[in-house]
Amino acid sequence: MLVIFFCIIFLILLVSWAKVNPFLAFLIVSIVAGLCLGIPLNKINASVQKGLGDTLGSLAIIICLGAMLGKLVANSGAAQKISEVLVSAFGIKYIQLALVAAAFIIGIPLFYGIGFVLMVPLIFSVVYKYKLPAVYIGLPMIAALSVTHGFLPPHPSPSALVVMFHANMGVTLLYGLCIAIPAIILAGPVFSLFLKKIPSEPLATFRAEELPADKVPGAANSFFTALLPVILLAVTAAIPFINGINLQTQKIVAFVGDPSIVMLIALLVGTVTLGIKQGKTLNQLGNTYAEAIKDISLILLIIGGSGAFKQVLTDSGVSNEIASGLQSFNLQPLFLGWLIAAIIRVSLGSATVAGLTAAGIVAPLLIANPAINPNLMVLSIGAGSLAFSHVNDSGFWLFKEYFNLTLKDTFLSWSIMESLVAVIGLAGVLILNLFV
């Protein structure tokens, strides 16, 4: 237990203090942990390679295809169209809610950074046009993006946790939606009511050019393509519960409902609806997809590194000791998972690293106690991984610089919002646990 504790501290120091790339930090700590835990020298490399390969083998397809679809939704103007339709439907009085809805829909297929950069120009155009407080209007949108990033597949961390805990992607998504909506409302529109007086002059430099109306796809096309992964996952998760479904149909549904197949279908459909039908050539689409892979390559490596660390713990035999040690705390397992992720998040700054590291520590608990709902554990750790973002988190500085805020006001807005999302998410998980 002491070795694991010091290895985690070492990982935190490498990433936060020494500024070592998280992937390299995971590899270094994995090797150090293997040596300290008594794994033979000739087997440490095998453990690292197996953990990295097993983790990426099941996730690389999902994450890469998700990134490609997200890039396509952004570059085609579909996300812009979704935003415009929602703003038009809600009107000026409820424009904040329109932005929240737009960010939630866009945030499901898009990675957080892409969604942020995509939505910020819309926020600023609304702020300048209607003379509204920037933080009051923008923070709820950011909350929606953050929640989808931490709670909902096909984002990297929740997708990885689903695989690690042998949870069901569709069920996790459905539970996640039940928790995400109240978390967004309370940490977004409700909390922002207290932020109207925060001074903010968004920099005009960050106001991006919008695509002309004749270059933007239709509303139905945009909504359908962006939400197709969610639709497919939800439908295939629900069909097995229908009475009278024969075995062959169940097999087909299981095949189509596999996250890799879901993302492949969605990307193929998007290639036609948002690509070819919008006048894009296959060469242009290929370049778009190549850029998407570049955007998430480091995320893939970090996930692989976390898998290597987890495998070293497993092969050393210390995982059973960790499970026994954690159980001795006599804490509710879902709360314990949340707490570990929250501590690592505060220390490291990265929600993805926090979630994946916590999962490696908590995984033995699920093996020792089959009564723990793995879908809820995914969401609990996802919520904890969003806790109190501060100066060691790139998202903190992204929000601060785009909205041109002081450090104090960034803490009062962004950091508190992230903490609220984490606490509300935990509460939602514990409530759901009473009924499922």
TrEMBL record:
Family: Belongs to the GntP permease family.
Principal localisation: membrane
Keywords on record: Cell membrane, Membrane, Transmembrane, Transmembrane helix, Transport
One cellular component (GO) term of this entry: plasma membrane
Name of a matching Pfam family: GntP_permease
GO molecular function term, any single one: gluconate transmembrane transporter activity
Membrane topology category: Multi-pass membrane protein
Organism: Mucilaginibacter terrenus
InterPro entries from the UniProt entry: Glcn_transporter
Location in or out of the cell: Cell membrane
Protein name: Gluconate transporter
TM annotation in the entry: 28-44, 56-74, 94-127, 134-152, 172-195, 216-242, 254-276, 334-367, 411-435
The keyword Membrane belongs to this UniProt entry's keyword annotation: yes
